[in-house]
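Why do we care about 3D structure at all? Because function follows from shape, and shape follows, mostly, from sequence. That is the central idea of this module. The next example makes it concrete: a single protein chain, its amino acid sequence, and then its structure expressed as tokens.
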Amino acid sequence: MSWIKEGKLSLWERFCANIIKAGPMPKHVAFIMDGNRRYAKKCQVDQKEGHLHGFNKLAETLHWCLNLGIREVTVYAFSIENFKRSKSEVDGLMDMARQKFSLLLEEKEKLEKHGVCIRILGDLHLLPSDIQELMAQAVQGTKNYNQCFLNICFAYTSRYEISSAVREMAWGVEQGLLEPSDVSESLLDKCLYTCHSPNPDILIRTSGEIRLSDFLLWQTSHSCLVFQPILWPEYMFWNLCEAILQFQMNYSMLQKARDMYAEERKRQQLERDQAAVTEQLLQEGLQASGDAQLRRTRLHKLSARREERVQGFLQALELKRADWLAHLGTASA
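And the structure:
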């Protein structure tokens, strides 16, 4: 089955979609696509067939999201923990990844038509080299599209992502691009795999499991979490609508929490900057509570210099990642 499903919603689906769109709509939805193996057992087919049905459901769900105006989707396709499964199942999933990413590369016209940007989030080093190359080619081939975004978490866990971001900041300090005092929550945000995406508005997990399984732990602190009992291959348009309705009912509370968190971050950064300026003035033998204009000038300079360092570091980090991906994408050429 194609990654990009063409066609319109049914008349009844369009009617319900128009009603839902009257309320606040999510811009970014994340899915833990759970239940493929249980579906296979339920239908008395092998696990590979269950995973194939799961992929087909992903294509259908992307079609629904596109028609609902949801511009960004993130899916948990393969966890680092999944490498602990049986060799036959892991090999089967890798074979399916080869087939589906090869198919994706053949669908360039559809991807361009819909402006779909593909991003792979995870540690590609853990994957077979041919799959790394296919994924890199998909990312490179769609990097300039910006109508909608599909983030595929493959060889991913949130804890690994966070620790990787910390290592990137440590690299920035070692290279002299950052000062240790530049390290902050805000900077860590910008070093995550998801740095180019807004945080998810909704995180949906199917199959009835009520846990996040190390998925987007940092990014979903102010997201609407929806746990649905249906198995992923049986997911329906109405299940997605239910999740959106839950988001809409909690929208005001979620938005307030996000705004309060953003303000608290700003306040904490200002306090750190003020403390740093006070220390500077004391080291120069000046009174910390002296000239208010001098303090404002110092604060402005401190903030401007930090921003300049941070931007230089982020540009270097982006270039490092892009160079590695470009090299990987042309490795087999």
